[in-house]
Amino acid sequence: MRVIVVVGAGSIGSNIAYHLVHHASFDASKDKVIVIDREGVACAASGKAGGFLAQDWSDGTPLQSLARASFKRHAELAKLLNVDYGYRPMDTLHVAFSERGGKKSVWWLNQDKVSRVSVMGTTSNTAQVHPRLLMNALMDDAVKNGAQLVLGTVVNIDTSTNTIHYIPKDASTAEETMTYTDIIIAMGPWTGTASAWIPNIPSSINGFKAPSIVFKTSDLPQMVSPHAIFTQISMKGKVASPEIYPRPDGTVYICGECITPDTLPPSPADVAPSPADMEELKKLAAQVIPDVAACPVIAEQACYVPVPPGNVPVMGRVKGYDNVYVAAGHTVWGILNGPGTGMVISELVLSGQVTCGIDVSGIMDGGVFAVDE
Ligand SMILES: Cc1cc2nc3c(=O)[nH]c(=O)nc-3n(C[C@H](O)[C@H](O)[C@H](O)COP(=O)(O)OP(=O)(O)OC[C@H]3O[C@@H](n4cnc5c(N)ncnc54)[C@H](O)[C@@H]3O)c2cc1C
C-alpha cells in the first residue's frame, strides 16, 4: 500500500488531497491519502481569507501560469464539486475615498467621499469563493473518494524510518505514530517549524497577521451589489487600503492591516484579533461603507498570511529526499493558487513530473522547489 500523508488541511492541503484522489493513476485499492491537521479543515487563513480570485494579476511573474490555471480550475471545480460555496465571477473596482469626494460609484459606498473610481477586473477575469466552504467541499469530496482526515498535531517526522509522530486532538496526550511512503508538508505559515525535522525545508517560512470582519447585510432594504472593492482611503490624516468583498450569502467581508503586529503563535487556535485592530477596521468601514457598517457583525477574526523566503511559494520535492514534498508560502494568493498547486503536487507525487501544462520553471527545478533559505 502506498500511503501519501498531507500535513495541513488549509487551501493547499485540501486542494492537494482532492487532486491526489482524482489523479488518473490513483487507485484506492493500492493508494491511501491521509490528511492530518491540528485543528480541522480551514481552521487558519484558509477559512478566514477574502476568497478573491484574479486571473491575470500575477502576469509577468513566475506565478503567471499557476495563477491562470488556478483561476480556470476554480470555475471547473464549481461545477465538479456541485456544492454551493459562493463561487461567482464578479466585477472589481479600485475606489479612492477622500474628503474631496466628487465622484459616484455603487450605492453602498459612501458617495460623499468617493474621489476616484477605476475598473480593476470584470466578471471574465475576477471572481470569488467563500474559502471555508470551498475547503470543506474539497475535503468532503476527497474523503468520499478514499482520503482520510486525522485531527492531530505533528510533532516530529523521522525521515530515516518514514514515521510521523503526532498528538491526536481528541484530548489524549499520548503520542501516536503513522508511517508514510510519501509526505507533503502544507502547514502554511507554520511550515518553517518543519525545518526542525527536515533541515532542507526553509526555516524562514513564516506569516504576518491580518484582521477581518464580516457584516450580515441581508436585512438591508437594497442588495449589496457583487463588486469587489479595493480601497485607498485618505481621510482624517490617515491612509489605509482595506479590501471589501460582498458575498452571495448576504454578508460583506472586509480585511485590512494590523496596527498591532504579532508573532505567529504555535497553533491556529491561539490566533485572536486584537480589539484595537477590530476598532480600526470598524472605523474604516463606517467611513466608506456606512450602511454596511451599521449592520450586525457576525465575525471578528484574524489570521496569518504565509510568507516564503523569496517571492514565490515553496513548492516541490525537498532536496535530498525522493518522497518528501513542500507546498507553502502562497502569500495573499493561497486561495486563488490552491487548485493549481493541487494539480502540480499531485502529479509530481503520483507520476514524478508535472504534465498538466502549468509552467513551473520559476517555482521548481527538476521537481525540487527552487527557493533557498
Ligand atoms: C486577511 C486575509 C485575506 C486573504 N485574502 C485572500 C484572497 O482574497 N485570495 C487569496 O487567494 N488569498 C487570500 N489570502 C491568503 C490565503 O488565505 C493564504 O495564502 C492561504 O489560506 C494559505 O493556505 P495554506 O493551506 O498554505 O495555510 P493555512 O490556511 O494556514 O493552513 C495551514 C494548516 O496547517 C495546519 N498545521 C500547522 N502546523 C501543523 C502541525 N504541526 N500538525 C498538523 N497540522 C498543522 C494548521 O492547523 C492549518 O490548518 C488572505 C489571507 C489573509 C490573512
Notes on the structure:
The protein is 21% helix and 32% strand. With 373 residues, it is an alpha+beta fold. The strands form 4 sheets. An 8-stranded mixed sheet has the order 10-9-8-2-1-11-19-18. Strands 5, 6, 12, 13, 14, 15, 16 and 17 form an 8-stranded mixed sheet that branches. α1 runs parallel beside α4 (131-144) and α3 crosses α7. The protein is globular, with a radius of gyration of 21 Å. The model has no long low-confidence stretch (mean pLDDT 96). The site of flavin-adenine dinucleotide has 40 residues, from α1, β2, α2, β8 and β12.
CATH superfamily of the largest domain: FAD/NAD(P)-binding domain
Instruction: Give the class-level CATH name of the largest domain.
Output: Alpha Beta
Strand order of the largest sheet: 10-9-8-2-1-11-19-18
The CA-CA distance between the termini, in Å, is 34 Å
Query: What string gives the helices and strands in order?
Result: EHEHEHEEEEHEEEEEEEEEHHEEEHEE
Secondary-structure arrangement, i.e. CATH architecture of the largest domain = 3-Layer(bba) Sandwich
Task: Report the mean per-residue pLDDT as an integer.
Answer: 96
Which residue ranges are poorly predicted, with pLDDT under 50 across at least 5 consecutive positions?
Answer: none
Q: Strand count, sense and closure of the main sheet?
A: 8 strands, mixed
Query: Could you say which small molecules are bound to this protein?
Result: flavin-adenine dinucleotide
Q: Radius of gyration in whole Å, from Cα?
A: 21 Å
Instruction: Predict the CATH topology of the largest domain.
Output: FAD/NAD(P)-binding domain
Number of strands: 21
Count of all domains:
2
Count of DSSP helices? 7
Helix content: 10-25%
InterPro entries: FAD-dep_OxRdtase, FAD/NAD-bd_sf
Protein name: FAD dependent oxidoreductase domain-containing protein
Pfam families: DAO (PF01266)
